[in-house]
Write a structure and sequence with these properties.
Length: 229
């Protein structure tokens, strides 16, 4: 599966209390086809994370719209949380695993986010299956401190994929890794994308990573330009 994403004339202006407005995105429009793979590059501070957060409904645009297969995201906080949980997987630069939970528990955290939710045996078996797929079957009861950085990022990828998302948004997922480990994590993301067909958007500073993503767009001065594609 996968959904198409259409970002249309999006502005983002931050208005910090007592400070000057910061215009980050300027009538930005871009479309991502269902099941496509796109790399976003651009200088630090150009708004890459902001754009990813807007697509992921973690932030709202100041103006403009984002649609998913032609429909807007829900507006109420409750429906929005469900929308995010059911359709979108995030992988961040730092894995944000919870230190005192095991690998398996960390992966299942999003399942427990809904109030009074109980874990389904389905979720547990999917978590175990995915952990096996990323080569961590033997490590499910370990704590993050017992894993390498690359292994922690693989756990974060499994956590993002647990709900079978239609969209996976990765914000410099290999930023904290050495070149070889970064390459292996990208291999994994691309392999999972090929199998599951989700729409994948990866923000990266690393030319070697961007070069493997097919389509690359560059964010600069609030606008996106195609680099190739
Ligand atoms: N909550 C906020 N309030 C005010 N300004 C913000 C906020 N979040 C981001 N900004 C500003 O918006 C601009 C874009 O930030 P963003 O994090 O999207 O950049 P980025 O391209 O992801 O940079 P990097 O490559 O360093 O991660 C920056 O100037 C940043 O300081
Ligand atoms: Mg960023």
């Amino acid at each position: 599966m996968g959904v198409s994403i259409n970002v249309s004339s999006v502005d983002k202006v931050y208005s910090p209390a007592g400070g000057h407005d910061i215009g980050v995105l300027d009538r930005l429009s871009v479309a991502f086809a269902s099941g496509s793979i796109t790399g976003i590059i651009g200088p630090s501070g150009s708004g890459k994370s902001t754009l990813l957060h807007i697509i992921g409904t973690l932030e709202t645009p100041t103006a403009g719209t984002v649609t998913y297969d032609g429909a807007a995201s829900p507006t109420s906080e409750k429906d929005l949380a469900a929308f995010r949980r059911d359709h979108i997987g995030f992988v961040f630069q730092q894995h944000h695993l919870i230190p005192h939970l095991t690998v398996l528990e960390n992966v299942l955290v999003p399942q427990l986010a809904g109030k009074g939710k109980r874990l389904s045996t389905d979720a547990v078996s999917r978590a175990n299956g995915l952990l096996e797929r990323v080569g961590l079957a033997e490590r499910t009861s370990h704590k993050p401190s017992e894993l390498s950085g690359g292994e922690c990022q693989r756990v974060a990828v499994v956590r993002a994929l647990l709900q079978n998302p239609d969209i996976v948004l990765a914000d410099e997922p290999t930023g904290a890794l050495d070149a070889a480990t970064a390459g292996a994590l990208l291999d994994l993301l691309l392999e999972l994308q090929k199998d599951d067909g989700f729409t994948l958007i990866v923000v990266t500073h690393t030319p070697e990573i961007a070069a493997r993503l097919g389509r690359i767009v560059r964010l600069d001065a609030g606008k996106l330009v195609e680099v190739n594609g």
